[in-house]
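[recover] target loaded
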């Protein structure tokens, strides 16, 4: 078999290592989300929360591994004039495809340069789909049935999240070529997952005791808010590495955003920390003002998300100031959700609200900045042929919301008709750990005898007997 040593030069291997590190940094984000959930759910739901999040992430990942990445590569095949661009991308990049299964040294550089990097980027997309599902699960913890969530996970990983990436995230993506700008995956991750959560949380309903007292005394009580701090610190550590994976590192030429905007390694890292600190300071001020300590820990996340589209084209000062707006948007989103009686205190205030506001705000801050295209191409795919504008940012937001919201509503209605989206009331009162696994993460939450609980397809579960601790 012919070899192409330039595919495995030192430069190519270092680039592949950069993207590998970025891809697996996303796993730390998933771990951070799990710790945040662990701290905020009831004690008796901790085990099931981890099990559902872990499984949903894996199912979403395998969907992208099987073929979702090919949808993103479709845009490059279109730009380079490859015949049958979508079908060719699928044949090349599904899990058993030619380019996904061949060592880089044996891939012709005239057909696919930087094959190692593209293969690692497939993994980056897989972990992004895993993170999207971990985020969606966070929005419906303690009440969503596992089976509907897992079916949704597969469809999201296989088609829907990669479709948003195809449209909005990439230098030759259709909407990017008209002026839509993203950098840190705000459209395919935060806005997509936030829209899905908005629809699903509305359809699945609030947790027992959220807005009105429940006869059993059940209510959503945080288990240990300290875990939230640990989760946020993990996400904070991972954030700059994920951001650096969201662009093109071109040896001898520089670092560019994913839409080929001019940027730099150091600038992106400074912008990330400025956004985190801006959000953290404002979150702390809100926490002390409202006597809600969780904002101390969640503020940096809101600051990071609201700056996600700005990291490559902004400055540290602009990211510090915009990051400080993140928690303010989060508090406003929370107040609106309470008025609408939608029980979702994490994903929508931290990801959806700041993501949407930040994306549109970037259109004003970076108005006129050149974007889109790919080196060596001309005409509609020439580098910098498009410009960032507020209205195209709004088009990107609305398109993402449609791609997520419409399928989610259809799937929710189907599941409501055939088996339901939500666990039974009895199961929610008893706790999902005991109901689904016959055990809990905390041994003192489960005390024999075993009793039967109707619904959810199970036969017998352990029941807590401590009447004084219904939560």
């Amino acid at each position: 078999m012919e070899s192409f040593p330039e595919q495995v030069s030192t430069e190519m291997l270092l680039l592949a290592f950069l993207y590998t590190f970025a891809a697996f940094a996303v796993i730390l984000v998933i771990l951070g989300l799990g710790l945040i959930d662990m701290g905020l759910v009831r004690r008796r739901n901790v085990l099931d929360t981890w099990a559902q999040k872990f499984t949903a992430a894996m199912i979403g990942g395998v969907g992208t591994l099987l073929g979702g990445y090919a949808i993103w590569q479709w845009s490059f095949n279109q730009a380079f004039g490859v015949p049958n661009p979508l079908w060719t991308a699928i044949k090349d990049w599904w899990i058993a495809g030619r380019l996904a299964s061949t060592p880089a040294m044996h891939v012709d550089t005239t057909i696919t340069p930087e094959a190692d990097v593209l293969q690692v980027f497939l993994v980056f997309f897989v972990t992004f789909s895993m993170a999207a599902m971990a985020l969606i699960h966070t929005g419906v913890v303690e009440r969503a049935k596992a089976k509907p969530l897992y079916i949704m996970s597969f469809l999201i990983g296989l088609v829907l999240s990669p479709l948003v990436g195809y449209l909005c995230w990439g230098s030759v993506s259709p909407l990017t070529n008209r002026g839509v700008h993203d950098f840190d995956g705000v459209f395919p991750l935060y806005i997509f997952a936030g829209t899905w959560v908005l629809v699903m949380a509305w359809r699945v309903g609030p947790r027992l005791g959220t807005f009105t007292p429940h006869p059993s005394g059940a209510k959503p009580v945080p288990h240990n808010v300290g875990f939230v701090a640990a989760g946020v610190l993990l996400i904070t550590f991972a954030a700059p590495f994920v951001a650096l994976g969201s662009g093109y590192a071109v040896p001898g030429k520089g670092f560019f955003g994913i839409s080929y905007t001019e940027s730099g390694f150091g600038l992106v890292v400074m912008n990330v920390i400025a956004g985190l600190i801006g959000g953290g300071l404002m979150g702390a001020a809100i926490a002390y003002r409202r006597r809600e300590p969780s904002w101390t820990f969640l503020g940096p996340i809101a600051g990071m998300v609201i700056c996600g589209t700005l990291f490559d084209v902004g400055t540290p000062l602009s990211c510090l100031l915009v990051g400080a707006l993140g928690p303010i948007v989060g508090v406003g989103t929370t107040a609106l959700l309470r008025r609408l009686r939608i029980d979702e205190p994490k994903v929508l205030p931290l990801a959806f609200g700041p993501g949407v506001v930040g994306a549109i705000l970037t259109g004003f801050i970076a108005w006129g900045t050149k974007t889109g295209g790919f080196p060596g191409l001309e005409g509609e795919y020439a580098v910098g042929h498009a410009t960032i504008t507020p209205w195209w940012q709004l088009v990107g937001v609305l398109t993402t919301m449609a791609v997520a919201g419409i399928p989610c509503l259809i799937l929710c209605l189907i599941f409501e008709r055939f088996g339901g989206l939500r666990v039974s009331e009895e199961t929610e009162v008893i706790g999902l750990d005991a109901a689904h696994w016959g055990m809990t993460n905390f041994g003192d939450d489960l005390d024999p005898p075993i009793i039967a609980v109707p619904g959810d397809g199970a036969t017998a579960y352990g029941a807590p007997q401590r009447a004084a601790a219904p939560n």
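[recover] notes: The longest strand covers residues 247-250.
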